[in-house]
Design brief:
about 70% helix, two-stranded antiparallel sheet, globular, 13 helices, mainly alpha, about 375 residues
Amino acid sequence: MEKKRWLSKFSFKGDKVILGLVVFLSMLSILLVYSTGGRRVVSHLTHLLFCYAGLALFYVVSYKKILEKGAFIGLLFAFILIVLTLSSRAAVRGITFFGHDVQTFYLIGFLVIIFLSNFIGRRYNKDAGLSENDMKYLIFILLFFCACIAVLNMSTAIILFVTGMVIFFVSKFKMKYILAVMAVVVLVVGVLAFVVYKSGEEGSHIGRMGTFVNRLEYYFTKENINGYGDQMILSRAAIARSGLHPAGPGKGVIKNRLPENATDYAFASLFEETGIVVGLIVLMAYLVIFYRAWKISKNSPNALGAILSFGIGFWFTCQALVHIGVNCELLPTTGQTLPLISSGGASLFVSGCAMGMLLNVSKKNQEPEEVYEDPKQMFYR
């Protein structure tokens, strides 16, 4: 009896499907990194250890305790990272840390979503709901970080903005605020894009808008005058070459010409060597993760766990779908990595932390807790 009690303390009580998919995707990442550059495998395995360490930490420690003391501190840390990133000249989308370029925007986005979810969830848990000042405050936080990120990484800013808007929508924000914010953002981005397009080379100095416009231009016109379509052409060729007859692990050819073949074009590189079956399984894996996150959200007896799991699930899956869409030329070129598969220490660690927190919520859902009697208190529309 004592032995069973001792073992029960170490038994896994979270969502086993999500954990299995995390292991599966991370194993594919080892295959990808080995086939694209075998010498990087040792470094990648080290990054995976940090990924699983982050997952274990956020799974073991109660998410309520983490957010109660760490949500606002995390937002302050995100602000510091934004300042350091924008002022850094050594790294394009990150900071230099002990001689290594560390990508920061993925972590910043995660911290912002954590803060928004915690703020909204605790308001509903206290039966207070969201006042108009609360809504304006959260919108300001989201727009501030999106605007700062957009200076160097437009696609990450868009993903964070869309995730924030979805969280606001299911949290019963007033539609007039959501529609007004979306209209203003679309108008501002549209005006900037038009100015850059008309100004040519001069407009390329407005952050990353020049690159953003050139990639959009190629996507709609297919005129590869400035070479902005090279990546998409090679990516599409790698996928088309495979199909039902993949090249096999380590035997891909087009992947060797793809820039960032283990990060921004990880899906195309993996597809060329493993084929359509594995490609579809990978796509379904991310969709299943979102479905499980949605189920965890619906089963959560408190608003904090509900909004947190939904926000993380949507954000995580959105990253993956954008990456896959770009690799298949369904979307304009972006610099998005494929969560848990693309190489990179920062992205793997943040993905592990995100999945750990999702598993934490699923574990806590199994514990007895006060359930809302009045469905109006819950945030879902």
